[in-house]
Amino acid sequence: MFESVIKSSDRAEAKIFFGSQEEIKEKCEERTSPFDGSVVSSAPVCDAEDTIKALKIAKKAARSAARSPLSQRIAWLEDVAKKLHEEKEAFAVMLAREVAKPIAFARIEVERCVETVRLTAMELAHLHGETIPTDIMPSGKKTLAYFRREPVGVVACITPFNFPLNLVAHKIAPALGAGNSVVLKPTPEAPMVAYMFAKLFVTSEYAVKDALSVVYGDAEVGSTLVQSDIPRVISFTGSVPVGNIITKQAGIKKVSLELGGNAATYIDKSADLAVAAQRCAFGAFYNSGQVCISLQRIYVNEEVYEAFSTLMAKETAKLKVGSPYEHDTFMGPLIDAESKERAKSWIASAKSEGAKVISGGDEVEGMFPPTVMADVTDEMKIICEEVFAPIVSLVRVPSYEVAVEKMNDSPYGLQFSIFTNDLRMSQAFIEDAECGGVVINDIPTLRFDVQPYGGSKLSGVGREGPKWALEEFTQVKSIVIC
To answer: Are residues 278 and 174 in the same domain?
Structure first.
């Protein structure tokens, strides 16, 4: 089945969902595979008028969404999760086609997406308030006072290409589950994956009518969503520059931003170097390094620097680079040619500044390989800015104290980690690391969908993860009965 789908020359056509109605626009754009350039799908070209239409439908649907029984919304999410699980291979194949995600990891993303939707359904049972003792101070008096959480109304969701299925689920499942209506603008790089997923929601027998609309596009569509007075929450995952624009354009509404990162780890002299190297190779090059928490900086204690560098180079060399359609491929191509050229220029820049390549560096069948840079220093661009490519830098440090200072000396603060068998050092790191998430004895790329996820500084505001997203997509109402 898998091979027959891959070889199919049929071009899937994504449609617009204006609430429960599907529409095909005359003008469409073709999506070509980052791997071989073949046309794999197409998407309607939307504009501001389409976006406004979707927002008005969402505004009208918000009232019925808010009044829908919680039992219906839980059944809705459970139904979507069930059908996604049944169709998981078709979704995985489309991920491999549209964004060239290796099929093994595409299947993992689909499974995670199923779990994200199910987790959201479970968390809805805990979306409640509590009573408040209004006579706690002399100025008060006895009343029946409490607060509850209510849907905000309309949520606008803007999602990226690197996890074009699961990151959609992390937004629309909690938003719809909380009783809101949603307008989704998925990444232009994966229109069909988003369409297939949205269709599971729209066609479910438990669906709230017109609660979900989908529009495709870039700046015009995004700006129209953000600047409109209709959405009460903008939920965005993407780059810092775009996040900055959204913050300035949004006006008075809640903005949840999951932005860039410059994830780092420290390899202590007490660490199991073989395990650390194996995990670091995975964390640096998973999804071609196109992950906000992709491991980019590795600070290594000088006493074990040479040994770890050797192990890291060996582990990296084991990784298979090639076709996303082969089951043992670890890493496929970057999302586009521009990203590959940028990565190559960063390597050249670092080499000119004194760094050296100890693994990778040269193209493999036209694809940028997993690359390990040694002798990197603090001043080099390759370590100061987010790479978003399969490049990791090794930095020699004399101590933990120096390492954590260097980690924190970054405008980003998403996730950091440490490899050590020193308990006191682990405890200190939890306190010292200036970031949204800390991992002990594994890579900062580690993320469980049930956790709160988000960063500090330029890495964003707000948190994802079903429990925390439900808080982002609801508002508190205070009630007093005298």
So the answer is: no
Digit-coded pLDDT (tens) for 40-70: 999 999 999 999 999 999 999 999 999 999 9
Question: Partners of 13 in the beta sheet?
Answer: 42
pLDDT digits (tens, 9 = 90+) for 361-417: 988 888 999 999 999 999 898 999 899 999 999 999 999 999 999 999 999 999 999
Nearest to 315 by CA among 372, 397, 383, 393: 372
User: 322: closest CA among 98, 100, 86, 13?
Assistant: 100
Q: Which residues are marked as active site?
A: 258, 292
Are 283 and 382 contained in the same domain? yes
| CA count, 13 A, side-chain hemisphere, 257 | 24
> Is 374 a domain residue?
yes
- Give dist(CA 242, CA 98) in Å, integer: 23
Residues 6+ apart with CB under 8 A from 412: 260, 261, 262, 386, 455, 457, 458, 459
What is the domain count for the chain? 2
CA 129 to chain centre: 29
Q: Record the tokens describing residue 172, joined without a space.
A: 């629309």
